[in-house]
Design brief:
Largest sheet: none
Distance between the termini: 57 Å
Number of helices: 3
CATH architecture: Orthogonal Bundle
CATH class: Mainly Alpha
Helix content: over 70%
Radius of gyration: 17 Å
Strand content: under 5%
């Protein structure tokens, strides 16, 4: 059986990779994927602690986080497609549609 701290190390590594992806990349699709990676790291933590404490609350909350992540991906993809149609770029620095 895998110990809880192994799951925590995995989640910390995934979350760190996601933060680095958000902070260093300028492609909006990579930024959205990095945010999804961070949400998955949080889900691993929730389920690991839920298993460690022998309670179902963490697993239920993880299902809600997965639902929010799916909605965020759908809305984010719609915004990306609309921005690409208008600006023909995926670079975050070149998208200034919200500015006056």
């Amino acid at each position: 059986m895998v110990a809880t701290h192994h799951y925590l190390f995995l989640a910390a590594a995934l979350f760190t990779i996601g933060v680095i992806g958000v902070l260093t990349r300028r492609n909006i699709m990579i930024v959205l994927m990095s945010i999804e990676l961070m949400m998955n790291a949080v889900n691993i933590n929730l389920i690991a602690f839920s298993n460690h404490l022998q309670q179902v609350n963490g697993q239920i909350f993880a299902i809600f986080v997965i639902t929010v992540a799916a909605a965020e991906a759908a809305v984010g993809l719609g915004i990306v497609i609309a921005m690409f149609k208008n600006k023909e770029t995926m670079n975050i620095n070149e998208i200034d549609l919200m500015k006056w």
